[in-house]
Structure to design on (297 residues):
């Protein structure tokens, strides 16, 4: 019986996450030729073509999509087995924060996997705005926080680990985006995404008004789905069945990218907190090399 090579699967996942052999090579610390050889051997093993070239990126074929789920589970089980047998039995308490959109999308999988490899670590989760989480880190009320990098000021350290598109979104069944004065669902003042959206509309002379304000992504989703307003969301927070992305062809100007960072407090050298930080960055990054942020972020 042919067996799948775990190292090849790690490379396979890296290509899917980074979009190219070059970025994957940097992420897994291999040469591009070694990456290509591994993928050739993996395709020979399964007897299927796993990637197709689309523009400058490598995209999964249907067979590749099918393998991806198995690959992630195999690699995760391998990590769990090695952690159980080789890593010290960490224990302690971690206070971690995230805005509710990232908490909903990412934390369940992150915390579930971490609890399997480090069952004696107690985790406390706080959902708040990026600005509020930054203040908690500064006041030593959190150990780690996933935040929008642009919300954070001052001498905070961490890593920029994820960059994704920011989109205009509207309800699937309403026409709020066609109103003469565009109704917006926004977070309170001080949000850089809100400012970028308003600046973009000002630049094209599109009139707008604040129709709904909430610091909660759930609240924003309710308003947008009800057809009360148009919103601004990062790619990972958009549920395709509920919301629709608005395009430049429909009169919506491009927005800057969302930059997501993991910031930390003074206890980052504690083994259990460092383990969680590494776990989050490794699991959620879509960058070949996450950027270390030191001093002023």
């Amino acid at each position: 019986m042919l067996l799948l090579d775990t190292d090849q699967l790690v490379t396979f996942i890296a290509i899917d996450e980074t979009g190219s052999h070059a970025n994957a090579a940097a992420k897994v610390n291999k040469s591009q030729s070694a990456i290509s050889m591994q993928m050739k051997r993996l395709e020979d093993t399964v007897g299927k073509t796993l990637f197709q070239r689309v523009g400058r990126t490598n995209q999964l074929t249907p067979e590749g999509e099918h393998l991806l789920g198995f690959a992630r589970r195999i690699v995760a089980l391998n990590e769990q087995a090695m952690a159980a047998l080789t890593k010290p039995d960490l224990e302690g308490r971690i206070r971690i924060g995230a805005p509710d959109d990232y908490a909903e999308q990412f934390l369940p999988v992150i915390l579930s996997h971490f609890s399997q490899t480090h069952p004696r670590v107690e985790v406390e989760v706080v959902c708040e705005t990026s600005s509020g989480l930054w203040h908690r880190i500064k006041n030593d009320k959190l150990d780690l926080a996933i935040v929008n990098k642009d919300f954070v000021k001052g001498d905070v350290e961490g890593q920029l680990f994820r960059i994704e598109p920011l989109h205009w979104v509207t309800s699937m069944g309403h026409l709020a985006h066609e109103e003469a004065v565009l109704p917006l669902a926004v977070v309170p003042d001080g949000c850089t995404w809100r400012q970028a959206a308003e600046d973009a509309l000002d630049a094209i002379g599109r009139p707008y008004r604040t129709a709904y304000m909430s610091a909660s992504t759930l609240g924003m989703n309710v308003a947008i789905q009800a057809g009360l307003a148009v919103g601004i969301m990062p790619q990972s927070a958009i549920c395709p069945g509920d919301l629709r992305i608005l395009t430049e062809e429909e009169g919506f100007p491009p927005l800057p990218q969302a930059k997501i960072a993991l910031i930390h407090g003074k206890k980052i050298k504690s083994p259990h907190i460092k383990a969680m930080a590494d776990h989050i960055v490794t699991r959620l990054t879509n960058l070949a090399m996450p950027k270390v942020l030191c001093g002023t972020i």
